[in-house]
Amino acid sequence: MLKEFFYDWPLLKQIRDRKDGTGPEAMSERTRSLAPKTEGAQVARSICPYCGVGCGQLIFHKDGKLISIEGDPESPISGAGYARRAQTALSCSLIQQG
């Protein structure tokens, strides 16, 4: 059991296989099993209300809870970005919701 643990340990895999540690050999089983937090969430398009710029945003929600708010890459105004005021306000709203 201990031998198997060390055999699958990413650091030792890198040394054993003479890899540089930037590819799949650097990943643990847990890392490989991770999924994006927005996976399975519904998406609503909206416009940011914080200033007059009108940045486009994508609102990800699941089971009535806010998951993430991101810039809309298809927005002709913001192109996936946000004005400074919106970045701060959105960060605070996600932190408060928990």
Features of the shown structure:
2 domains; alpha+beta; 98 residues; Phosphorylase Kinase, domain 1; 3-stranded antiparallel beta sheet; 20% strand
List the helices and strands and how they pair.
Elements: H1 2-7, H2 10-17, H3 29-33, E1 42-47, E2 56-62, E3 65-71, H4 84-97
Detailed description of the structure:
34% of the residues lie in helices and 20% in strands. The chain has 98 residues and is of the alpha+beta class. It folds into two domains: 2-33, no CATH class; 42-97, Phosphorylase Kinase, domain 1 (2-Layer Sandwich). β2 (56-62) and β3 (65-71) form a beta hairpin. The model has no long low-confidence stretch (mean pLDDT 76).
How many discrete structural domains? 2
In percent terms, what proportion of residues is strand?
15-25%
Average pLDDT:
76
Given the structure, what is the number of helices? 4
Biggest sheet, strands in spatial order? 1-2-3
Q: What is the CA–CA distance across the termini?
A: 39 Å
Rg calculated over all Cα atoms:
20 Å
Low-pLDDT segments, ≥5 res: none
Under the CATH scheme, the architecture of the largest domain is 2-Layer Sandwich
Judged by helices, strands and strand pairing, the structural class is alpha+beta
Describe the largest sheet: 3 strands, antiparallel
Report the CATH topology name of the largest domain.
Answer: Phosphorylase Kinase, domain 1
